[in-house]
Write a structure and sequence with these properties.
Layout lengths: L1 E8 L19 E6 L74 H10 L10 E5 L2 E6 L2 E6 L4 E7 H4 L16 E10 L4 E11 L6 E12 L8 E7 L21 E8 L5
Antiparallel strand pairs: 1-11, 2-10, 3-4, 4-5, 5-6, 7-8, 8-9, 9-10
Length: about 270
């Protein structure tokens, strides 16, 4: 039995840390299972609550949720429908002679904002995580994912990431309740293990308010087979780096720092 290494990276914000602390071993905790299922597109038009209040005081992922002042207004226009997964041909050629040999329309802003019945925020930039293998293409952005076959036909999606990771909606537009804030998606298909890996950074809230709790963790989803449209197992790993929940404390100021996690994944000799 071989062992492969999965490297997961959390977000980075400006921080001042006292390095040199001894290495800390963190334990992955199983967070249940999930099956990607398309969530309905719909919901109300744009409102004055288009950006996550916890993210608007500074840069995205800053964690600076205090003294936000008035909620900013967002002036954006959104296409009224999804363009679909239409293949694009090679009818044109630029003067420098590049050629588009193939492709298909992936996720767009309409998918992001109106997934899960519109219980989403307007998020830019998308932070794309793209991976492919075993006849599938998986695309994840802030904060939705979709799965296509190799011809570009959509098999599943859009699925908002909060639903995929079994959390409440990031914003319930009927009740005003906030769910965890998910960001920085990435994905990888490992041909050796025939498994898909999907990783996000999740920022916890104070209850159902918009305020960030200060704790955050990596959510790591691993497919149970080589088919990404089937069942996945979810693992959670705290990464706040402040001494709580078994994390190290490097005396950092600035909320979130770059965190690299190396996870040993056993490679079975065969799959049924």
């Amino acid at each position: 039995m071989k062992t492969r290494l999965l490297v997961a990276v959390a977000a980075m914000a400006f921080a001042t840390c006292a390095f040199g602390a001894p290495p800390t071993t963190l334990t992955l905790k199983k967070g249940g299972t999930t099956v990607p299922a398309t969530t309905p597109l719909g919901g109300a038009p744009l409102t004055n609550l288009e950006q996550d209040p916890a993210m608007t005081a500074g840069a995205a992922d800053s964690g600076d949720g205090g003294a936000l002042g008035a909620q900013p207004m967002v002036n954006r226009s959104i296409a009224r429908g999804h363009a679909g997964s239409q293949k694009m041909g090679t009818s044109g050629r630029a003067k420098s002679n590049p050629q588009l040999l193939g492709g298909f329309d992936g996720l767009n802003f309409h998918d992001q904002r109106y997934a899960n019945n519109g219980n989403q925020f307007s998020v830019e930039p998308p932070d794309q995580g793209l991976c492919a293998g075993n006849g599938f293409v998986m695309e994840s952005v802030n904060d939705v994912l979709a799965i296509y076959d190799q011809a570009g036909n959509k098999r599943v999606g859009p699925v908002d990431l909060n639903t995929f990771y079994d959390y409440p909606a990031v914003i319930n537009r009927s009740t005003g309740a906030f769910g965890p804030s998910i960001t920085d998606p990435s994905c990888y298909y490992d041909a050796g293990t025939q498994r898909w890996f999907q990783v996000v950074l999740t920022l916890d809230r104070v209850g159902s308010s918009s305020s960030l709790a200060g704790t955050n963790h990596l959510d790591i989803a691993v497919s149970q087979t080589a088919d990404p449209t089937g069942a996945w197992t979810i693992y959670r790993l705290p990464v706040q780096n402040n001494g709580t929940q078994g994390t190290p404390d490097h005396g950092c100021t600035g909320a979130i720092v770059l965190v690299t996690i190396r996870i040993s994944v056993p490679t079975p000799t065969r799959f049924s």
